[in-house]
Specification:
A hairpin with a 7-residue loop joins strand 8 (127-132) and strand 9. Strands 5-4-3-2-8-9-10-11-7 form a nine-stranded antiparallel beta sheet, with no helix packed on it. Strands 14-13-12-16-17-18-19-15 form an eight-stranded antiparallel beta sheet. The protein is elongated, with a radius of gyration of 29 Å. The chain has two domains: 39-179, Immunoglobulin-like (Sandwich), CATH 2.60.40; 190-329, no CATH class. The protein has helices spanning 2-27, 29-37, 44-47, 90-100, 113-118, 173-176, 245-256, 266-270, 316-321, and strands at residues 38-39, 52-56, 68-73, 76-81, 84-87, 104-105, 108-110, 127-132, 140-147, 153-158, 163-168, 202-208, 227-232, 235-238, 262-265, 273-282, 287-295, 300-305, 310-314. The protein has 331 residues and is α+β, with helices and mostly antiparallel strands.
C-alpha cells in the first residue's frame, strides 16, 4: 500500500511539472514574440490564385532594367518578352511562389521614410516583386533592399508601408537576381517538363542527316541516307537493319527531352542553311518535325519545331547528339 501511495504521489508531481512547463511555453513573452514574427510575404492561400508576376531590378546609375514578366496563359506559365510568350519553367515559378509563402522568424524593424534610403528600400533603388491575381491592385508588392553586414539577409518592405523586415535573402535572391534565361523552359518539347516523355507514344521516327560537315570533311551524323525507325509492338525496326529497341527508345527519349541554350526568332531559323531534320509520328496521329539550321557559318545552330513561333539555339554538341550513326543502334 505504501508503494502505491509513493507511485501516485510521483505521478501527480510529474503531471504538475508538465503543466507548469506547458504554461511557461504559452506565456513566455519571447516565444510569443517569435510566433508573432513568423511572417510570409505571400499568404499561402493566395499563392494558388496568382496569375502574373513581375520582377524588376534597379539599373546602375538609377532607373530600372526591363522587368521580367511571367504570366499564366492557358494553365501554363510563360515569360513575356518582345511581344511573345516564351515557355517558362513551371516548377521554378512554383518554387518561387512557395518561397514567398514561406514563414520564418524575422525581427520587425519599424523604419521611417528617411531610413528607407539608407536601407536601399526606396522604390528607385530596390528590387521589386509584384504578384497579381487578376484586375486590381497586386496581391503582393515587395521591395528588396540592401543586405545586412552578414550578406545573408536583406531589408524588405511592402510598397506603401514604412515597416521593414530583415529577411533571409539567400534563397530569394536565387530567383529575383537570377538571369532571365533561368526562367526559360528551353526543351524542344516544353510540355514534357511535367513528367516522363511519352516514348511509347512515338510510332515512327525519320532522321534526315545534316549536309557534309565542313570541319571534319564527312557527314555530321556519319550517314548519308535518312534513317527510319518504325515501332512494331514493343520493338523497333529500322530502315538500315536490325537494331536494339532499348537503344532506339533511349534515342527517342533524347529527342523528346532535348534542350537548348536560348530562344531565337523563327524567321532567323528559316533563313539559315539546312542542318538536318527529325520527324516524329505519334500514336494519336499527330506529327512533329524539328528542322535544324546553321546560321552565319560560325557553327551556330537553331532548332525550329513545327507549329512553334520561335526557334531554340543549340550547342554543337547537342546538335551532333541528335544525329548518331546507324552503328550506335546495333544489337
Amino acid at each position: 500500500m505504501e508503494y502505491r501511495k509513493k507511485v501516485a504521489a510521483l505521478s501527480c508531481a510529474i503531471a504538475a511539472l508538465a503543466m507548469a512547463w506547458a504554461a511557461a511555453l504559452i506565456l513566455d513573452p519571447a516565444r510569443r514574440g517569435a510566433r508573432a514574427d513568423a511572417y510570409s510575404w505571400l499568404d499561402p492561400r493566395d499563392a494558388g490564385m496568382i496569375g502574373a508576376i513581375e520582377i524588376s531590378l534597379p539599373r546602375e546609375g538609377g532607373g530600372e532594367t526591363e522587368p521580367l514578366s511571367l504570366a499564366l496563359v492557358g494553365g501554363r506559365w510563360v515569360e513575356r518578352s518582345g511581344g511573345r510568350n516564351y515557355p517558362a519553367r513551371q516548377a521554378r515559378v512554383g518554387d518561387f511562389l512557395a518561397e514567398l509563402s514561406r514563414r520564418s522568424a524575422q525581427p520587425v524593424r519599424a523604419t521611417s521614410a528617411a531610413a528607407h534610403e539608407r536601407l536601399g528600400l526606396t522604390e528607385g533603388a530596390a528590387a521589386r516583386v509584384t504578384a497579381s491575381a487578376g484586375l486590381g491592385p497586386p496581391v503582393l508588392d515587395l521591395l528588396i533592399g540592401n543586405s545586412d553586414l552578414t550578406g545573408r539577409n536583406s531589408y524588405m518592405r511592402r510598397a506603401g508601408r514604412s515597416e521593414a523586415r530583415l529577411g533571409d535573402d539567400s534563397r530569394l535572391s536565387s530567383f529575383v537576381r537570377a538571369p532571365r534565361s533561368s526562367w526559360h523552359n528551353l526543351l524542344l518539347f516544353p510540355e514534357n517538363e511535367d513528367g516522363a516523355p511519352p516514348v511509347a507514344d512515338v510510332m515512327r521516327v525519320t532522321v534526315r542527316p545534316p549536309p557534309e560537315d565542313g570541319e571534319g570533311g564527312g557527314l555530321a551524323g556519319g550517314f548519308a541516307e535518312p534513317m527510319v525507325f518504325a515501332r512494331v509492338g514493343r520493338s523497333w525496326e529500322a530502315s538500315f537493319g536490325a537494331v536494339s529497341s532499348a537503344r532506339v527508345d533511349a534515342y527517342v527519349r533524347d529527342i523528346l527531352m532535348a534542350a537548348g541554350e536560348g530562344f531565337a526568332g523563327a524567321a532567323e531559323a528559316a533563313g539559315g542553311a539546312p542542318a538536318g531534320s527529325i520527324a516524329l509520328e505519334f500514336a494519336d496521329g499527330s506529327f512533329a518535325e524539328i528542322a535544324f539550321a546553321e546560321i552565319g557559318g560560325n557553327g551556330r545552330r537553331l532548332a525550329l519545331v513545327s507549329g512553334s513561333a520561335f526557334a531554340i539555339e543549340l550547342s554543337g554538341w547537342a546538335h551532333r547528339r541528335l544525329f548518331p550513326s546507324p552503328e550506335s543502334f546495333g544489337l
